[in-house]
UniProtKB/TrEMBL annotation:
It comes from Novipirellula galeiformis. GO terms for molecular function: arylsulfatase activity; metal ion binding. The keyword GTP-binding does not apply. SUPFAM superfamilies: Alkaline phosphatase-like. The keyword Metal-binding applies. Belongs to the sulfatase family. PANTHER family: ARYLSULFATASE FAMILY MEMBER, ENDO-4-O-SULFATASE. It is an enzyme of class 3 (hydrolase). It comes from the Bacteria. This is Arylsulfatase. Gene3D superfamilies: 3.30.1120.10, Alkaline Phosphatase, subunit A. The gene is atsA_22.
């Protein structure tokens, strides 16, 4: 995207100026050359006669920017395998999830569309929620499958699907993470699930329905639990569980499944795509015995080291099967570190979970959505490289399309911009200068180069000033930061730059109203979007509670 988002006055096709330093003539210009190169559907890349790469997208859960030692020189948690990715690949120092909680992030990763264009305007789904990805919606998996890839999703889904009920119909927890409707016992755990991963482009699936602290606690293979839920267990929230299911086993189990998929597909003539969303280090924080105490910090540090072990197992499988050279591996996380990690304990040990950035999971501040983003592709990406290009996980779809020479329909991937040129060291200018972020409460922020505008007072999430707990009546309604000189977001400049506040507010309004942030016809959002949320007043006579786990 760019610093200017002016609608084309010459027509109603909804093109935007994408000049990286602002329009040199006027805000209504069509800087066509750049516009067209940024959207695969507008300017399809011609497929070259080359061997297509495998693609593995590893998405850790609730791991902060500072929890990777390659990104945080003062980290007290060792991550040698993730560090290896960085040493042998490229670090994106300005990489972002679309949300500071997990379900929205997952939607944006797979669809290349901002999650807030759907009915999910705040929070996350539960384990019995209806599917968030609508039928027919283009995903990274369906795009790559159309171009000859074997596709697999292994791990934590948390995008909803249709659980069949014994009484007929399908489950819907309506945001009640404990299940509602008889606590999930009305689900037929022997029947096939519909509108899940295998209906949005994945050939196969193995994993869990949602976060590991949300029932039901069962493994699902493709469409059916491998063991029905017959007992009740509680990994924070009580609910239906398979008798043999234990939280501590989940990360090792999905790791072995991913390694097996890589090995089984390594000799195939078809390239493969693995979407590998981990359950860790999210709650419940359950490192296996071999990792307990390894970090010397706390259980979260131990679990984070086990996540690093998982990354190492993936790299080992690629090496053992001699396919590392032409496999693009991306490691990133769905949002920042959660307070459930016991941040005070981490800080007492000298560990900054989100490095120099303010806030954590759920927040609109950088600590909520600026995440580790590391890519290795030995055949194409220069080892030990680093970029300060602004990039989003939402850009995976357009990047995958450009890599395989795919044409994306103008109704798909409407917020995705390819970073292939960055990977290859060919980018001569910013691929985007703007990106939209959102907190757990649905509060918006937008970037314009180094400038960031938060359309709310306070964090919009769980850190102070926290909505519903802090009195924000005396705070400015918006926050404006210059991240180049104030990456910790300590100095609100909104009063000094009213014109910039107005400009960036208009940019976001245009992105919302246009139904897309890339060139193409105007599209409809799935729901009405409230750009500026009402300020939540402090609750009376209620003690401050620790944030709920999940998401």
């Amino acid at each position: 995207m760019s610093s200017t988002f002016a609608k084309n006055q010459a027509g109603d096709r909804g093109w935007f100026c994408r000049h990286p330093r602002g329009c040199p003539t006027n805000d209504a210009c069509l800087w066509i050359a750049v516009c067209m190169s940024a959207l695969v559907s507008a300017c399809p890349v011609q497929a070259e006669s080359r061997e297509l790469p495998n693609l593995i997208f590893i998405l850790a859960d609730d791991q902060g920017f500072g929890d990777v030692s390659a990104l945080n020189p003062d980290s007290k948690i060792d991550t040698p395998n993730i560090d290896r990715l960085a040493k042998e690949g490229m670090i994106f120092s300005d990489g972002h999830s679309s949300s500071s909680v997990c379900t929205p992030t997952r939607y944006s990763v797979l669809t290349g569309r901002y999650h807030w264009r759907t009915h999910l305007q705040q929070g996350v789904l539960g384990g019995f929620s209806k599917p968030l990805i609508s039928p027919g919606r283009l995903t990274v998996a369906s795009l790559l499958k159309q171009h000859g890839y074997s596709t697999a999703c292994i791990g934590k889904w948390h995008l909803g699907w249709d659980w069949p009920l014994k009484s007929g119909g399908t489950a819907n927890d309506f945001g009640d993470f404990s299940g509602g409707f008889k606590g999930g016992w009305d689900v037929d755990y022997t029947a096939e699930i519909q509108n899940g991963p295998c209906d949005v482009g994945f050939d196969s699936f193995f994993g869990i329905s949602a976060s590991l602290d949300m029932p039901p606690y069962v493994y699902v293979r493709d469409r059916t639990p491998i063991e029905p839920a017959t007992v009740e267990k509680a990994f924070h929230r009580p609910g239906p569980a398979a008798a043999g299911f234990e939280a501590v086993d989940v990360l090792p189990r999905i790791t072995s499944e991913a390694v097996r998929f890589i090995t089984d597909n390594s000799k195939s003539d078809r390239p493969f795509f693995v979407f590998f969303p981990l359950n860790a280090p999210h709650t419940p924080i359950v490192p296996t015995p071999q990792w307990k105490g390894k970090s010397g910090v706390n259980a979260y540090g131990d679990f984070t080291m086990q996540v690093d072990w998982t990354v190492g197992e993936i790299l080992r499988a690629l090496d053992d099967n001699r396919i590392a050279e032409n496999t693009l591996v991306i490691f990133t996380t769905d949002n920042g570190c959660s307070p459930a990690a016991n941040i005070a304990e981490l800080e007492a040990a000298g560990h900054d979970q989100n490095y120099i950035y303010r806030g954590h999971k759920a927040d609109i501040y950088e600590g909520g959505h600026r995440v580790p983003f590391i890519a290795r592709w030995p055949k194409q990406v220069q080892a030990g490289s680093r970029t300060d290009q602004l990039v989003g996980q939402i850009d995976l779809l357009a990047t995958a399309a450009e890599i395989v020479g795919a044409k994306v329909d103008e109704h798909g991937g409407e917020d995705s911009v390819s970073f292939r040129a960055v990977l290859l060291g060919e980018a001569k200018q910013p691929i985007r200068s703007s990106i939209v972020s959102q907190s757990i409460g649905g509060q918006f922020a937008i970037r314009d180069g180094d400038w960031k505008l938060c359309l709310c007072p306070g964090s919009g999430g769980w850190s102070a000033p926290r909505p519903g707990q802090a009195d924000m009546s005396g705070l400015p309604a918006v926050q404006l930061f210059n991240l180049a000189i104030d990456p910790g977001e300590t100095n609100n400049l909104e009063a000094k730059h009213p014109d910039r506040v107005a400009k960036m507010t208009q940019m976001l309004r245009a992105i919302i109203d246009q139904g897309r942030s890339t060139p193409g016809p105007r599209l409809e959002n799935d729901a009405e979007i409230v750009m500026i949320k009402p300020i939540v007043k402090p609750r009376k006579k209620k003690a401050v509670r620790k944030p709920a786990a999940g998401g």
